[in-house]
# Entry
Amino acid sequence: MQDIHDPSPEFTRFLEWQTRTAVRRAARFGAEVRAPRAAARFAKIAAVVVASVLAGASAVVAAEHIQEGRELRLHLETNRIQLELAERRVERAERERVRVAGLRDEGLVGDGEFARAAGEVLEATVARDHAALERDEMVAARRMPDRAITAPVIGRRDFVAEHLMLDIEHASGRVDRLAKEAERVAALAGMGAVSLIERERSEARVEEARRSLALEQAQLDLRTSFVQGAIDAETCVRQAVLLPLESRREGLAATIDRTQSELELARERYRTGLVPSRVVDALEARLEEERAELEMVEAELEFLGS
# Structure
């Protein structure tokens, strides 16, 4: 019985025939003839593969452009609705300001109420103008809005700087409004109508608003330096991260000082029975949280500065 691993006579004869045929073909045409044909065939295959890859890449890019166009149209429609709502909010705020102004003239409300109504008008106006800027940017750049500190200038318009100037306008109005409120509270504190703590908190709100204004102005200066080529993109981005952290550190330090003063006063009043222990406990917990947050901010600044 023939072993299954041994070739059959038919297979052996077929293999010998293939070998003789290959030898005769090589002797007639030369061994070098096969190589150019193979190379040409491989070149054609490679060309087909490359063309397929390029066609696939083009299809992907085209699909991405289509998706981006759809997102842009959706965002433009959303922006249109936001603008309509913002305009209505401005109108309502302006009507309220006029109403409160009349009440103030009649002596029915004070300057503080009118200042709050005027602040609502300013906030609504700034929000509407931000939305209008986003619309203008999408139309001009044919892409989604980009408020990054290193975003490119579109034509002759620096939309990032225009947004920052709106924020500065809003922050400046807030400083003025809170400063007037602080003057009112100080006058009441002088008459004994409000506590000294309330006066200090009112002054603290003014300080915080001024820090926010200073931060917005610093970011605008940073943007201007980048656009003018005074600093590179990497430096600009790094400074944009550091600025709010430094402002936050300054604000937290001031807040901790105020909380510490309130805590000392609360402890003194607790000893005389004027306030319950829970007031002292709450202030101690708040002071601990503020100090922990300050430590985290300082750690971030140290890391970024290294």
The CA atoms of residues 49 and 66 lie 26 Å apart.
